[in-house]
Amino acid sequence: CNTCGSSQFNFIFEKASPLGESFKIVRCKKCRLVQVNPQPNLNEVLKYYNNSYFTERTDRGYDNYYSDKIRSEISRVFQLNLNDLGFFKWEKEYRLSNHVSLRSLDIGCAAGYFVDFMRTKGYESEGIEVADGPVEFARNKLGLKIHKEDFLAWDQDFKNKYDVITMWATIEHLHKPKETL
């Protein structure tokens, strides 16, 4: 189990992937986390996030992740979430007490829509993403600073480097969620 280390699971179901592989979904008997078992490694996961995942409608993909319509909807949702979390009030108080430039990092940033949002708010914003297509879009179309890296292998000292670190709709895509958190 990725969370507690147990090796005892209850089988829930098996699902075939679009690439013809079969994945077993299990529940840990100890902590009850539902997960894929065995856990795929990063290279096994990456093949599911080729550019067609972002541009061709499937049961798990998008019609066109890079469209203005999708970008607008994603932006609307994260702004609602930020409001619900009290981010804008926190940010106002934080800005008043910190007279330095603010920095943000979005982990699993996809096409960089949140990175761009933070940039428009005056942050020195960065993102990190493993999928080629979104990284290329974010860098070339939006002019963003995006690291094409596995977050767990990224050699960074995070202490006092960022004022805000986010992960939007990312944890369910991670091959090692516990380690990432």
Give a description of the structure.
- By secondary structure, this protein is of the alpha/beta class.
- The chain is built from seven helices and seven strands; from the N terminus they run βββααααβαβαββα.
- Strands 6-5-4-7 form a four-stranded parallel beta sheet, with helices on one face. The chain has a three-stranded antiparallel beta sheet with strand order 1-2-3, with no helix packed on it.
- Strand 5, helix 6 and strand 6 form a beta-alpha-beta unit.
- The longest helix has 18 residues.
- It is globular, with a radius of gyration of 18 Å.
- The two termini are 15 Å apart.
- The relative contact order is 0.13.
- The mean pLDDT is 90.
**What strand line-up does the widest sheet have?**
6-5-4-7
C-alpha-based Rg, rounded: 18 Å
Termini separation (Å)? 15 Å
- List the uncertain runs: none
- Quick one: biggest sheet? 4 strands, parallel
Listing every helix as H and every strand as E from the N terminus to the C terminus, the arrangement reads EEEHHHHEHEHEEH
Helical content (DSSP H or I, runs of 4+): 25-40%
> Can you count the beta strands?
7
The rough form would be described as globular
What is the mean predicted local confidence, pLDDT? 90
What structural category characterises the helix and strand content? alpha/beta
Number of helices: 7
β content, as a range? 15-25%
